[in-house]
Amino acid sequence: MINFILLILIYTGIYALMAIGQNLITGYVGLLSLTQAGFFAIGSYVTAILSVTYGIDFWITVPIAGILAALFGVVIGLPTLRLSGDYLAIATLGFGEIVRNILNNWDSLTNGPMGIQRIPMITVFGMKISPYAKWGFLVVVWLFVLVAFVLFERLANSRMGRALEAVREDEIAASSMGINATRYKVWAFALGAGIAGVAGSLQSTFILSVTPGVFTFMVSIMVLCMVVLGGMGNFAAVILGAFIIQFISYFPQLVGLSNIIPPQFKQILFGLILVTMMIWRPQGILGRKTRGEPAIFKRRGGKK
Fold first, then answer.
1. Cβ count near 208 (within 10 Å)
2. Sign of CA dihedral 271, 273, 278, 279
3. CA atoms of 50 and 119, how far apart (whole Å)
4. Cα–Cα distance between 180 and 185 in angstroms, integer?
5. Sequence-separated (6 or more) residues with CB below 8 Å from residue 261
6. pLDDT tens-digit readout, 141-153
7. Less CB within 10 Å around the terminal CB: N or C of the chain?
8. Bridge partner list, 300
9. Which long-range contacts (CB under 8 A, 24 or more apart) does 143-147 make?
10. Which residue, among 167, 286, 178, has the nearest Cα to 236 in the 3D structure?
């Protein structure tokens, strides 16, 4: 039971990283992107290839995976950000499927459908962090989540964060005020993709193997559910959403009903969550994080 709970918490952390990136793209800029699975796959395979083929340490592969995923975010972002709504969702979903099919067919680099096995474990000061023990890996994953949360919170409260929100609310008005909407959208896409690449690195070193079949569009749907469920525009909320979705995903195994409830039930449940939240509480469980009053309006000495 304890190991199963630790497994849920580890996957919560990995998916929370992707949800934080998705929240920047969807929650702050208002772009309906469905391609986190593609960036997740890129990060996983970068770490797998570099560590298995070239013997490069995990701590070196992580920034490489994040940067490469961010570059792909720019590549997909520049041509598709002229689109919006359903058209953008379809274009980004197509990119995720392209990535998966390339990984599935580039045998010389990715080993095709067989994937890459025997990925080395994470080492810290010469000590291996075994995913089988879970406690050590749990600490590593949540340290990444903590760092990402702090950095993205600071970004959201910075000038860039205010510009992203302005673009979301009214792109034409933001542009008229001198905000380069395209540049900020591309930055958001790159940062959201980069953190998904880091999550992919952690995923590959946790299961010690990668295969293309893992990175389906349902991964992107799950991440979107986490953001919608927790509350768009609120990084703490999407971490809560990640935990709830992971708990729901593993609940049948947790209570011993995995033989009764089919795997497809999760897909139906995610759809029901999205529909229910959109109807009854579109702001999510915790809702969007609002900014405080401008300093000029705050009380001074008990008076306004």
1. 16
2. positive
3. 10
4. 9
5. 252
6. 999 999 999 999 9
7. N
8. 303
9. 144/13, 144/17, 144/198, 144/202, 145/13, 145/16, 145/17, 145/20, 145/239
10. 286
Which pLDDT score, from 0 to 100, does residue 292 have?
52
Q: In this structure, are residues 69 and 196 in contact, taking their beta carbons and an 8 Å threshold?
A: yes
Q: Give me the amino acid identity at 44.
A: S
d(CA 76, CA 30): 17
pLDDT at residue 109 greater than cutoff 50: yes
Nearest Cα residue to 11 out of 229, 243, 201: 243
Report DSSP letters for 36-67, one per residue.
HHHHHHHHHHHHHHHHHHS---HHHHHHHHHH
Which two structure tokens, joined as six digits, stand for 4?
Answer: 């199963």
Q: Is the pLDDT of residue 302 over 60?
A: no
pLDDT top residue among 231 and 294 = 231
- 127's enclosing H/E stretch is strand 127-129
Report the run of H or E that residue 12 belongs to, with start and end: helix 2-22
Distance linking the first and last C-alpha atoms of the chain: 55
Residue given tokens 């890459």 in the structure block: 116
The tally of CA atoms less than 13 A away on the side-chain side of residue 64 is 14
Percent of the chain residues past pLDDT 90, beyond the cut: 57
Nearest to 226 by CA among 6, 8, 20: 20
Write down how long the chain is.
Answer: 304
pLDDT tens column, 190-235: 999 999 999 999 999 999 999 999 999 889 988 998 998 999 999 9
Provide the β-strand partners of residue 124. Answer: 127
Residue 248: pLDDT band (50, 70, 90) is confident
